[in-house]
Amino acid sequence: MKKRLLILANSVRRGGHCIAGREFLQRDGKWSYGGWIRPVSQAGEGEVHTQDCLLTSGTQPAVLDVVDVTLTGKQDCPHQPENYLIDSAERWHRIGTMVGKSLRAVEETPAHLWLQPDTRSDRIHTNATITSLTPFQSLYLIRPSNLRFRIWEAIDKFRGGPHKNRRAIFTYAGTEYDMPITDPTMETRYFQPFPDVNQPPREIAPKHPPNCLMVVSLTVPFTDGYHYKVAATILD
To answer: What is the pTM of this model?
Structure first.
């Protein structure tokens, strides 16, 4: 099956990509937005490798591209109901771009971002009732308030060496969230130079705070018993 998507996330995921977008639907000769679709592979944790999401031009799809993607069917995944399996034999086809156009039609206003009592704002337990938001979805495009970025490098005892930390701190619906950033474009847009391991954290403000939109995503379960929330795309 072919699906036409407005790409809203192309973030880092376990050595590959986590790509997601809203479906374009044609009804009575008019185009409208459908639900979220996250193309995934059958390898690893569903990450899509670069060679499996190349456009016919040989380049990678970018956020705000409109692309046609060939999928083999829906994946049965309760914690990520948007997942569809890719046909890795077919290249993706870029139709156009939404750069410079309003995204208000796809902006979302959930009551909260998967909050769980007595749990840090960047995670929920794997045994939690994650369908408390009805209908449940693991992706949202939201407008955060009081957004800033915090970056630092520290020795990570689990990784056995220095690790770069990139966090988005913001308020949504009266709750402050603090979650990791997996948007790879932030490195050149905001995070240069990056503090070294001996320097204190840097806090950075976005260039146009009122215009910022963010894709937040709920990850697959980790072995420590949590699903994590990540800032997969930051649009300013």
So the answer is: 0.92
Residue 132 has a pLDDT of 59
Kindly calculate the radius of gyration of the chain based on its CA atoms and give it in whole angstroms.
18
Question: Is the Cβ–Cβ distance between 169 and 120 less than 8 Å?
Answer: no
Q: Are residues 146 and 211 part of one domain? A: yes
Give dist(CA 214, CA 140) in Å, integer.
8
Percent of the chain with pLDDT over 90: 62
Is residue 146 packed enough to be buried (19+ CB in 10 Å), middle (13-18) or exposed (0-12)? exposed
Which amino acid, 91? R
Q: How many domains does the chain have?
A: 2
For the stretch 142-180, pLDDT in tens is 999 999 999 999 887 766 778 899 999 999 999 999 999
CA 65 to chain centre: 15
Q: Find the angle CA(100)-CA(144)-CA(67) to the nearest 5 degrees.
A: 40
User: Which residue in this structure is represented by tokens 């569809």?
Assistant: 84
Distances (CA, A) of 135 to 78, 131, 139: 12, 7, 12
Q: Which domain holds residue 35?
A: 2-97
CA nearest to 69, candidates 49, 83, 87: 87
**Residue 135 preceded by cis peptide, ω within 30:** yes
89 and 180: one domain? no
Higher pLDDT, 27 or 36: 36
